[in-house]
Specification:
Radius of gyration of chain A: 22 Å
Strand order of the largest sheet of chain A: 1-2-3-5-8-6-7-4
Largest interface: A-B, 50 and 53 residues
Distance between the termini of chain B: 73 Å
Distance between the termini of chain A: 39 Å
Number of strands of chain A: 8
Strand content of chain B: 5-15%
CATH superfamily of chain B: Tubulin/FtsZ, GTPase domain
Order of helices and strands of chain B: HHEHEHEEHHHEHEHEEEHHH
Largest sheet of chain A: 8 strands, mixed
Number of domains of chain A: 2
Strand content of chain A: 5-15%
Structural class of chain A: alpha/beta
Helix content of chain A: 25-40%
CATH superfamily of the largest domain in chain A: Tubulin/FtsZ, GTPase domain
Radius of gyration of chain B: 22 Å
Oligomer: heterodimer
Shape of chain A: globular
CATH class of the largest domain in chain A: Alpha Beta
CATH topology of chain B: Rossmann fold
Number of domains of chain B: 1
CATH architecture of the largest domain in chain A: 3-Layer(aba) Sandwich
Number of strands of chain B: 9
Structural class of chain B: alpha/beta
Shape of chain B: globular
Helix content of chain B: 40-55%
Number of helices of chain A: 12
Chain lengths: 412, 400
Amino acid sequence: MESAVASARAAPSPWSYAGCGSLCRHSGSGNNWAQGHNHFGPRVGADALDLVRRELEACDWLEGFLLLQSVAGGTGAGLGTYLAEALADDFRQGPLVNVCVWPYESGEVAVQPYNALLTLSHLSSVSDGLLLLQNEVLHATCTKLLGVQRPGFTDLNGVAAKALAAALLPAWPRPAAGAPAQSPPRAAPGPGAGAGRQQPQPAAGGSLGRVALHPLGDLAAHLTAHPSFRLASVRHVPQLAPGTLDFTTFTWNSLLRRLRQMAVTGSFLEEGMQWAPNPAAAPGASPSKATPLPAHRYRNKAASSMLLLRGQQAAEVDAAEFADPRWHASWAADPLVVAASASRLGGCQMAATLLATDQACVAPLRRMQERAYRMASARAFLHQYEAHGMDEGQLLASFAAIEDTIASYEAL
Amino acid sequence: MEEGVINKMLKGPLSEVLDQTQLLYDVSGAGNNWAHGHHGYGPRYRDALREQLRRAAEGCDSLQSFLLLHSLGGGTGSGLGTYILGMLQDDYPSVFRFSAPVFPSEDDHVVTAPYNALLAAHQLLLNADCVIPVENQALLDACGRLERSAGAAAGTPASAARGAGEDGGGGGGSGNKPWDAMNGVAAGMLLDLTAGVRFEGSLNVDLNDITMNLVPFPRMHFLLSGLAPLAAQRDVGRMAAPRSMDQLFSDAFSRDHQLIWAEPRQHTFLATALMLRGAAGIGDVQRNVARLRGGLRLAHWNEEGFKIGLCSQPRVGLPYSLLALSNNCCITDTLGALQKRFDKLYRRRLFLHHYEEYMERAGFDEAAEAIGALRDDYRAADGARPAPIVRLRPRGLALA
């Protein structure tokens, strides 16, 4: 929107952005969600949709829309939300998935509680799926796992990009259990479309389905299909410093066990996890696959989840433990989709990614809401929003929507 | 306005930067009389001023804001300056108006400075979006410390006034005050303030971001600025470099590094912005915010509200520098001092007849009352206790 766009376009990078594909104005929204949504939105919305239409007309096949945005500021959050609403209105033929970057808890912007709640509440009514990436988690991944002492935004973006790539690159569905199955491939959207998507499989994988997963379509249709559970988290293992890759031995067993442990304990880092089921009961018991956490130690539950395996033998490995009924909501029918691809991701022999609509989003949402309540009770900063045509009622409506979201996740 | 002052400025080192066509002359200034500047010169030059503003605004690709540099003690800067502010409010309502006024100090050599300052402050309260005051006394102290630490003899011969706060609180740059160094410090603050607009950075701060993040309530827009390292451009070379990044953050919140005389740590921070220039990452900021937060009194509704700006271009001669802008309740002390000096004169109705030539006496009462109310607002916010919060109940729980 501002000069940042121009510099992104000029920066030397393996990506290239066509000059006509970007929209540039002189100034941003000044961290004001209402300004971005109510003021800039109507002003530049038509131009932006025009750009989208031009891109669409060049497409043979529309997979869907992937929006990357922050939730804290004014332009990404406010204008981004406006555009998401406009896309949902105009182009209903493709799923709309938003990748939302959750700000640091200590704050990059003073008004981020308002902005974040407004964004999420508006998006959850138009978007088909929201992937939440927390800066705090990305930061901790950099410092604790990747060995970057003073991470900058480039490092954080690197971690986020890798997780997204792992989630969205092509993969082929397979049954959760390791044994080869003859069941027909699921998730074929339509005969014509399916035929167009048949691709040669990269390597021998007996149990892989013939039709590739639709990264956005299947995400929307399976993972975030329930309207109350649109918020999904991304967990990716392994997170390795680039230099250590050559000296690491990979086994699917350990990788999946760690990922599963991260999931059921609600942690985002494969570090400092709780392994011991109950120290008092079994002092010397080593954690093993046979004795996972007892049921009452399951800290985290998901409405649905999606497991993506990449690397050698990804098609055969047994991932049945992710189908654990204790990890999923009791009412969920067929909550797990497993997909695999034999290609390596970023040089890793094996990598696993878990997307889940789990309760891990509750804690950050709660904290953010707590702060928004405190701010609103002092009526701080409200005049800035009122200046751009948003009254307190609208703010409260979005508070209520977030309360709903929190409550439904907590009730899992 | 005053021909002599302007001519002196044109002879100075900055003459090439100034647009000759945008100058407005009169034979004499407003004679240290706010009312003369505001109600006399203001209406008289209204059309000329408006024309010149329009010409400047039309030349802009992207009009970010108006930045007004003026003193509050004299007549022209405070009177005409605040008049221009009101004009901008009428003509460009959506463009933010920043003001960086020089507040008069205790021993100001303009007798009517208390009147001028309070009347002008009232206008700033009404018409500015953001006020970043600077005090001569604080600048003088800072420069004095710098001289001592540099081991040089105190006192720099005053030369042509330059840059910000053109004649430093109404007065002809006489005496032994290091105007250049003081102006340099104030200019440094402005440079850091606008760095996000002028240079690239991984977390850029526009000027409109500043009002958004630092003004929680419309009237409370008087900001405290802390600068680290605190030195004019000229003196940067002579100064010891900041020991570490962490030192920078501690300094910016200490009393000695504020551009007005204030005790920021004794009062509540309503909102804070940290604008870092140079080779620093978001990690450094996060670490320091976590470290400093314990020692600061933060408003209960905004305990995490730090606005962070990162600009990759450092100030000339420095590896990194930090500008900490905060909306701090310690501004009550500054406003209180202003009011006390005003009352001292006003109680005896001294010099009032000069002002009554141009304005009603009611204007005085109105200004005093408004500033008093602002002080009350700040005092109420200082150390306000959290009220019990009424949470909304989730609606959609019928199934659970």
